[in-house]
Design goal:
It is elongated and about 50 Å long. It has helices spanning about 20-30, 55-80; strands spanning about 35-40, 85-90. The protein is of the alpha+beta class and about 100 residues long. The chain is about 40% helix and about 10% strand. Helix 1 (about 20-30) runs parallel beside helix 2. The protein starts with 18 loop residues before the first helix and ends in a 7-residue tail after the last strand. A two-stranded parallel sheet has the order 1-2. The protein is built from two helices and two strands, in the order αβαβ.
């Protein structure tokens, strides 16, 4: 069986305030069916956690937690309504002690 898929990549700064909401708006503006959402977000830094800049840590949390929840809440009802689809969230964080 051969399956033809159409993929759209929508780029957004999910660590920026309101970034997840802008992403959802941009995807909705495409007016295409959404079968799967792949959220591949990442944010890195170097150094010890104790020395980390509080603003950088806030951006990291916004990206790795808040954006994931916002995106899932936005698209999940649509996927459940279809009875199919999936949410895939990829994130990583490494901090030294």
């Amino acid at each position: 069986m051969i399956v033809t898929l159409t993929t759209r990549v929508v780029v957004a700064d999910l660590a920026a305030p309101g970034g997840a909401q802008r992403l959802c708006h941009d995807v909705d503006a495409l007016a295409l069916p959404v079968d799967h959402v792949i959220n591949n977000a990442g944010f890195g830094g170097a150094g010890a956690f104790a020395d980390a800049d509080p603003d950088s840590l806030e951006r990291m949390v916004r990206l790795n937690a808040e954006a994931v929840v916002s995106i899932a809440r936005h698209f999940l009802p649509r996927l459940l309504g279809r009875g199919d689809g999936g949410l895939i969230h990829v994130a990583s964080m490494r901090l030294a002690a």
